[in-house]
Write a structure and sequence with these properties.
Distance between the termini: 76 Å
Strand order of the largest sheet: 2-1-3-4
Radius of gyration: 28 Å
């Protein structure tokens, strides 16, 4: 009789243990290569219409170098903007410095 109650107790514990497993989210999508970049100063000419920055496709382009043409800028404070495009053709949010 004692073993019968122990088996019921053990079965109940297993049921409770399985019921408490959290639902894990799906794995995030794999990172995509950055395939294009563009910059503009002060005014956004539109996506794909700014000055192209040559980049080698890759996940990390933080070491990419670009020459920014400052000809014609007035004295004063200006903002430089950058955006990138991934392999799916989706442009990033614009970032300024």
């Amino acid at each position: 009789m004692k073993s019968f109650f122990m088996s019921i107790l053990f079965s109940g514990m297993l049921t409770c243990a399985n019921a408490q497993d959290p639902g894990y989210p799906a794995a995030p999508a794999a990172l995509q290569n950055v395939t294009a970049a563009e910059t503009f100063i002060d005014t956004d000419p539109g996506i794909g219409m700014a000055t192209a920055v040559p980049v080698t496709a890759g996940i990390n382009i933080s070491n990419a170098a670009a020459t920014i043409n400052l000809t014609g800028l007035s004295n004063g404070i200006h903002r430089l903007f950058l955006r990138t495009r991934n392999a799916s053709g989706i442009w990033s949010i614009t970032d300024s410095k």
